[in-house]
């Protein structure tokens, strides 16, 4: 009868040997694991959704910055236009005040010309003054026979006339002056309106050749 010990047939645990040599004796290469013989851990795989969220956030920020730049540019353009418009308005106002003081002098020159008194040195001075004010944008207006416009004309006299078909300027008592669209002084005029009591034109009773109809023609 063969007996065995209680521990017979069981595998005994032997000693664990760890090779901590930095140089691998088989390949002769330096071990990256610090000589433990263990393989380095593989890097963690990137999360699939993290990269997409980062791109979406970056695009949102870029869109916001672009909108801010566009808004700033629009505000600057509006500011520049407003400054330029104000500058032109201030210039026209200052120029208008200076030229308005010269209107009485221009009136005297005009009256002297109408009475053939603008001669000699006075004529030269008058012509030069009118040329200079014209270069500065001063425009004289108002003429006999033109349609009456209450926005640029000031009616001082009123009459009816059978010679006009619409309200017109019958005479210019004092010329008007303007700079561009700005009226420095309206033209003071006499106004003529069509006469409501005027008789119809007798031309309707005339024959095609201009002769009046007679009883013998019938």
UniProtKB/TrEMBL annotation:
Task: Tell me the GO molecular function terms.
Answer: adenyl-nucleotide exchange factor activity; protein homodimerization activity; protein-folding chaperone binding; unfolded protein binding
List the GO cellular component terms: cytoplasm
Where is it localised?
A: Cytoplasm
Residues annotated as coiled-coil are: 62-89
Q: Name one GO biological process term.
A: protein folding
Q: Residue ranges under compositional bias (Low complexity)?
A: 38-51, 189-206
- Supply the InterPro entries for this chain: GrpE, GrpE_CC, GrpE_head
CDD domains, A to Z:
GrpE
What are the entry keywords?
A: Chaperone, Coiled coil, Cytoplasm, Stress response
Where is the stretch described as Disordered?
1-59, 188-218
Q: Does the keyword DNA-binding apply?
A: no
Q: Does the keyword Chaperone apply?
A: yes
Major subcellular site: cytoplasm
Q: Where is the composition biased (Basic and acidic residues)?
A: 12-32
Lineage, top-rank taxon, reads Bacteria
What function is annotated for this protein? Participates actively in the response to hyperosmotic and heat shock by preventing the aggregation of stress-denatured proteins, in association with DnaK and GrpE. It is the nucleotide exchange factor for DnaK and may function as a thermosensor. Unfolded proteins bind initially to DnaJ; upon interaction with the DnaJ-bound protein, DnaK hydrolyzes its bound ATP, resulting in the formation of a stable complex. GrpE releases ADP from DnaK; ATP binding to DnaK triggers the release of the substrate protein, thus completing the reaction cycle.
Subunit-level organization: Homodimer.
| Similarity comment text for this entry | Belongs to the GrpE family.
Its recorded name reads Protein GrpE
């Amino acid at each position: 009868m063969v007996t065995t010990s209680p521990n017979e047939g069981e595998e005994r645990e032997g000693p664990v040997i760890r090779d901590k040599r930095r140089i691998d004796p088989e390949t002769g290469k330096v071990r990256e694991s610090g000589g433990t013989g263990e393989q380095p851990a593989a890097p963690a795989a990137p999360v699939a959704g993290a990269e997409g969220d980062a791109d979406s956030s970056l695009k949102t920020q870029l869109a916001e910055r672009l909108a801010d730049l566009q808004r700033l540019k629009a505000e600057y353009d509006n500011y520049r236009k407003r400054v330029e418009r104000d500058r032109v308005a201030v210039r026209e106002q200052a120029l208008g005040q200076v030229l308005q003081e010269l209107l009485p002098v221009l009136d005297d020159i005009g009256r002297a010309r109408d009475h053939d008194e603008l001669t000699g040195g006075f004529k030269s001075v008058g012509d030069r003054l009118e040329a200079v004010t014209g270069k500065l944008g001063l425009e004289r207006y108002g003429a006999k026979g033109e349609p009456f416009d209450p926005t640029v004309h000031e009616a001082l006299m009123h009459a009816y006339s059978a010679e006009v078909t619409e309200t017109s300027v019958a005479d210019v008592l004092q010329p008007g002056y303007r700079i561009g669209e700005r009226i420095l002084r309206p033209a003071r005029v006499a106004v003529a309106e069509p006469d409501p009591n005027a008789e119809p034109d007798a031309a309707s009773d005339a024959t095609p050749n201009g002769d009046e109809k007679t009883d013998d023609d019938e």
